[in-house]
Design goal:
Helices cover about 45% and strands about 15% of the residues. By secondary structure, the chain is α/β, with parallel strands linked by helices. The strands form 3 sheets. An 8-stranded mixed sheet has the order 10-9-8-11-12-13-14-15, sandwiched between helices. A 5-stranded parallel sheet has the order 3-2-1-4-5, with helices on both faces. It is globular, with a radius of gyration of 26 Å.
Length: about 550
């Protein structure tokens, strides 16, 4: 009997491939006897092959240009090219195919490749997007729809792979680098979108102030060929002219592999959300990410020890890629003064010391930013801790509650996350949320009742079709009311969207099987609501929690 074959589809960008590799590396440690392959775009896979080869048995490249080459808009030739690619020996006898891309192209590809089992999204014969496993359903309902996801993508990938023990946190690879008197800061002041990066002038101010105040710091600037012009705008600034001997310009001069090894010579790394932050973390560098625009601090943060994220408190942050924005308020709210002073304590102490920051930064600058330290919880899953004395926002409190509830429901993992004493406004918010949770619970109980009514009527010797139709209409009404609740309680939308995704993927080919599946979905969502209700109640004063009781229903 041969090895089991697990093949991952990851067609998105370079950073996502690194995050996928980090999850796959842990899978490889626990399952060395499984053949593990990855399918990725040729342009990205080749660039990262020096990293992928250490984790995957086979790297399977796919290129749209090569598939279309010589086809001359002939559909038959194009289909023949696709079938030839699919006929590769490495794509045969796949036991588990895992789609980590969650895009239309990967959905189609996941459907075309023959596999015994599929995880992630794929397309049905009716051209509908299907997603059967619960962690992929979470991605589709929470990651794709808004900033509600409480998990890092690496942990989500690990859970889709079925990894239980998180070996990376005890691995010797995570030991800190040897300390030196002179520190070298690697900087990547660029990102793939304007929304996610400062203008060069702001980075110039940071570098100038840092080098002026700290004599034992050197700077290496990294970037690709497309970023040379922006790099020159920073380096040609007059204010940096007297620090030229302490700045090394690597922008556009190194391949990705050379950049990776050059990063290993640095002591610390700072940059916007990008591939290089993930590469720096592979060297276990302390990293500070400047999160702007569409960046979700915990979801895409570099994965490992000594990781920090600075983010603005702008109300519209994080936004969506398609959200119009004529003035990037989040860029203005994150000042170069706050970043510079934070970098100093980060580099000197390998830590961000809020006592130092409070003495060195005006409250005007510090009050408009959040700083997070990321690391493992008691369960070994990655989580963010807000630093400083500031209370988390109401939504951050609820996101932590949602995380604890989902971790227990999905994996029976009891994560320990500190929940702060709630303010008056937060109590009011949580009471409102709990009222919404109670209403979702009650709708689920009605859904269970009507699904059970259908099953009981169908089991009769002479089923009454009108009754069955009435019960089915009642279930449709429950679903419509769920949609209304999502509009009323916006922060409960991820819970409702998850329920909708699960219900859309019901198993069954007849009314009995569909009703049984429907009953299970409603019951499952009732359990989620029960856990949420109990956790929210623990954050409220006992007398207020009792006053909001549903008399034992939750």
């Amino acid at each position: 009997m041969g090895k089991k074959n697990f093949t991952i589809i990851q067609l998105t960008r370079l950073g996502d491939i690194i995050q996928t590799t980090q999850a796959a590396k842990d899978f490889r440690v626990q399952h060395p006897d499984i053949e593990l392959n990855i399918i990725c775009r040729k342009e990205f896979g080749l660039a990262l092959s020096f990293i992928l080869k250490g984790t995957f048995d086979n790297i399977i490249y796919i290129s749209k240009d090569e598939l279309l080459e010589g086809c001359d808009n002939d559909l038959d030739l194009y289909l023949s090219s696709i079938n030839k690619w699919l006929s590769q020996e490495v794509l045969q006898n796949i036991d588990v195919l895992l789609n980590f891309s969650f895009c239309e192209t990967s959905n189609r590809l996941s459907t075309l490749i023959t596999a015994k089992n599929r995880l992630g999204t794929f397309s049905s014969p009716q051209n509908q997007t299907l997603v059967k496993d619960q962690w992929s359903q979470l991605v589709y309902s929470m990651v794709m729809s808004g900033p509600h996801n409480p998990y890092n993508l690496v942990d989500i990938y690990k859970n889709i792979l079925g990894i239980k023990e998180r070996s990376c946190w005890t691995d010797n690879d995570w030991q800190p680098k040897e300390a030196h008197e002179v520190k070298t800061l690697g900087i990547h002041p660029f990102a793939s979108q304007d929304k996610k990066k400062w203008k060069p002038a702001k980075w110039t101010e940071v570098i100038y102030k840092l080098l002026k105040d700290e004599e034992n710091i050197l700077v290496e600037i990294f970037g690709s060929n497309s970023e040379v012009e922006f790099g020159e705008q920073i380096l040609n600034s007059k204010v940096l002219s007297k620090f030229k001997d302490r700045i090394t310009n690597n922008v556009g001069k190194l391949s990705l592999e050379q950049t990776y090894y050059r990063l290993g010579r640095c002591s610390h790394f700072v940059g916007h959300d990008s591939l290089l932050g993930h590469l720096a973390k592979l060297h276990n560098l302390p990293t500070l990410t400047i999160a702007l625009g569409t960046v979700r601090p915990i979801e895409t943060a570099p994965y490992g020890h000594n990781t920090f994220v600075m983010a603005p408190r702008t109300k519209c942050f994080p936004c969506f890629p398609k959200t119009d924005c004529s003035f990037y308020q989040c860029h203005a709210d994150l000042s170069y003064q706050a970043v510079t002073e934070t970098l100093k304590t980060f580099i000197i102490d390998n830590e961000i010391n809020f006592k130092v920051l409070n003495n060195s930064i005006s409250p005007f600058h510090l009050d408009s930013v959040d700083i997070f330290r990321l690391g493992p919880t008691n369960a070994g899953w990655y989580a963010a801790e807000k630093l400083g004395n500031d209370h988390p926002t109401s939504r951050e409190v609820f996101k932590d509650i949602l995380r604890v509830a989902l971790s227990y429901k999905f994996e029976e993992v009891e994560e320990i996350i500190s929940l702060p004493a709630t303010s008056r406004d937060q109590k009011r918010y949580l009471e409102q949320i709990n009222d919404g949770v109670r209403q979702i619970f009650e709708l689920c109980e009605f859904g269970k009742k009507y699904s059970g009514d259908i099953l009981r009527e169908v089991s009769q010797v002479s089923p009454d079709l009108e009754k069955i139709k009435t019960f089915a209409n009642k279930i449709d009404e429950v679903d419509r009311l769920m949609d209304l609740l999502g509009k009323t309680y916006n922060d409960l939308k991820p819970v409702i969207d998850y329920y909708k995704i699960v219900k859309f993927n019901l198993e069954g080919e007849n009314i009995v099987e569909l009703s049984e599946s429907s009953y299970i979905v409603y019951d499952d969502n009732s359990i989620t609501c029960s856990i949420l209700y109990e956790l929210i109640g623990k954050c409220l004063p006992q007398q207020e929690a009792r006053g909001k009781s549903t008399e034992g229903n939750v």
